[in-house]
Amino acid sequence: MSSLNLVYALSALVAALVVYRPFITRLDCMRYIFFCTAAAAVTLFLFVSSLSLTSPEESLQQHIHTHNNITTANRVLSSSTFSQWKTPASTLSILVYNSYYYNQNITTLLITLWKDASLLALIAATSISFFGIISRWDFPILHVKPQEHIFYDFLYRHVSSVSLILLGSYSNSINTGSYPHQVVSIFCPVIAMLYLFSGPYLFRRWRVVTATACLTSCIGYFSASHTIQLSIFTSWTVADWFSISFIFSGATAALDYWDAIMNTYPYLASNNIKDHVRMQDPMKLYYWIHLVKTIVNLSSESELDPEPIEDIKAAIRSLGDNKRSWKTMSILFPSNLRQEMCVLYAWFRVCDDIVDDMDPQIYGTFALDLVCKFLNQVFSHTNNNNHDKLIGGRRRQRRGRSSFSSEQQQQQQQIATKFSKSAFQDPRIPHAIDWDYYAQYLNETQLATLRGFSRLAPILCPKAAFALTDAWKIDIHRKAMKSQDDLLSYAGLISGRFAELCTCVIMYKSGRGNWNGGDPAARKDDVLQRARATGQCLQLINIARDLIADSLEGRCYIPLQYMSSRRTYKILKDSRDPSRIGDNTLKSYAIQILKLADCLTAQAQDGINGLPYEVRDGVRAAFEIYSAISPAIRDAKGFPKRVKVPKRRQQIIAFSCIYGFNPGLMDILLATRNKILKFAHTKMTGVYKRTADISLPSN
Q1: What contacts 493, CB < 8 A, 6 or more positions away?
Q2: What pLDDT score was predicted for residue 381?
Q3: 199: which of 156, 246, 505, 690 fits an S-S bond (Cβ 3.0–4.6 Å)?
Q4: Cα separation of 260 and 520, whole Å?
């Protein structure tokens, strides 16, 4: 029975880890190490406190009263040995004294101490896992509100922390000398410290913090009820367990809070981009040094610039329901990476919409020039020589539009101070960007996504970003794909280069260095090449699926070498009437394009395997879900306008990729379940029919 407490606590932890395992990040690993070590230290502190708070007589009477052995108590209290151990006040003397009269040895007490420490460490790890499972469906940075009145910040931080300290002092004063009731008073100052540093976030996330604390406190209380009598947890109440569980969940939330602030506002810790690279890995000391600097330099949320947070919200809103698969996939990423990936994808979609929405017959290449001008200004601050060579010619062509005199810069500063002051307060946004110019043609959501992208520019590869403009140029001019090599080249430009940008962000946020090209030692070209193959493969599948949709919009990406005559291309592109081609012919084109994608699948899988483990499962799930379009096209009758993978199938694929199950086995189990339900439904329908056929007897 003495080990049942560990069995129960370990079972709860294993159950939580089974669910949370695919989402564990490097920060979580450090949390497990730090919190479990702290739990062991707290156990030792409480164990020593429980011995030092009572005299030898009180300790002996309490324990022997627990054992209901009055005869032993009288015998021990009257013995001569008692006076030998009565005098020393040291904890070690009391420890040896207690072990002597319980016919126990030091080893037994140390084993009990080890079991208590293990129990509390298991509760700490369980609290981290439960909090991660419950809270990961949202962005922590969205719960930071710099625009909220400073009174609420004062209330959340200072008033609550002072109240908790007073509560702990009051609890200690009314329970003087009674250790079992002093646990809450010991933990109150710790909780007060959490509220002092992270009060606003704890109040806004009180549901998650409280739910985690309640769940883990119940597990701890139930496990402690099966401990031996020498354990310090035998006298703990539900309130005691809730206090320590609240500390674990609150500390986890506080760490998420400051991690989100440091990643969104890295200049609070340092203005050096090299320091920003070092602070991305929680397993290195630089991360914790800069985290402490962030905490020290920020005394209130009102000191933060609200625009980065508002831009993230706008980027998420711009994705909308049509991009739900991307947001679902991004849930599998760590929080700091998830918000950056959403901003990057939102920028990609906004630029794509800008190019598509402006009719080239009316506006010409103005939309493309707008995007190119923005990229020139965004990357104008970089010192990358390769980038300078890349955009040097384009900059010379647009020198009249992209260079600014001192008067123009001063005027822009005044406009920014009036309308968009915070954009110039963020040192990550290049001052060369003419926001007033873009505001004439773009709405606020589009401007927000551009600002978000400009903050990511120092970690992105300029060459990959400018390659996207070449793909959009093909879209504007509606160039025909003469061969499948042209199709592969286009797919590599549009999605392959975007996959390269995503890889730059992934590697940077996971602590693998800056892959923008400025640090050749950190950048690995073979990984980027495989990443481009992954994006290229997915783009080919997308093209094969959207043959009809593209034709209705006047686009055709089918290589001319697949067609029997040029007339087919004109029908699809100019006439916009794919029905005249026939489903069988369109399906044959799609299958040929899918065969090209199949040739890249192996290289794409190698690219996924080269990613950090934190994001590997999420990217693989997204790749497999999108790849499921290929068999859906092949198995469809005719050629539908837009093939969609059923949500149930997407869930099965995602579950299989995340938890390592075989999708085929899941399909078999699901089919078996459906057959059983269908058989039961048929039987019940027959019973109801026979019952209805029975006529009632006449009177």
Answers
A1: 467, 468, 470, 471, 474
A2: 63
A3: 156
A4: 29
Q: Shortest CA distance to 533 belongs to which of 601, 456, 443, 455? A: 601
Residue 631 has which token pair? 């068999």
How many angstroms separate the CA atoms of 670 and 649, rounded?
A: 10
User: In sequence order, what are the residues at sequence separation of 6 or more whose Cβ sits closer than 8 angstroms to the Cβ of residue 677?
Assistant: none
Instruction: Give the Cα separation of 481 and 589 in Å (integer).
Output: 13
Residue 447: name the closest of 409, 420, 474 by CA: 420
Enter the DSSP assignment of 672.
Answer: H
Of 252, 260, 20, which Cα lies nearest the Cα of 133?
20
Q: What per-residue confidence (pLDDT) applies to 618?
A: 82
In one letter, which amino acid is 397? Q
Q: Which of 111, 113, 105 is nearest to 46 (CA)?
A: 113
**Percent of the chain beyond pLDDT 90?**
44
Position 691 scores a pLDDT of: 47
Among 151, 157, 109, smallest CA distance to 2 is for 109
The Cα 168–Cα 147 span in angstroms is 33
Q: In this predicted model, what pLDDT tens digit does every residue of 63-86 receive, in sequence order? A: 444 444 444 444 444 444 444 444
pLDDT recorded at residue 668: 58
Closest CA to 76 of 100, 96, 54, 95: 100
User: Which of 658, 536, 663, 661 lies closest to 602 in space, CA to CA?
Assistant: 536
Low-confidence ranges of the chain (pLDDT < 70): 1-4, 50-105, 175-182, 227-230, 321-330, 358-364, 381-425, 661-675, 677-699
C-alpha closest to that of 614 among 281, 328, 212: 281
Q: Give DSSP secondary structure letters for 120-139.
A: HHHHHHHHHHHHHHHHTTS-
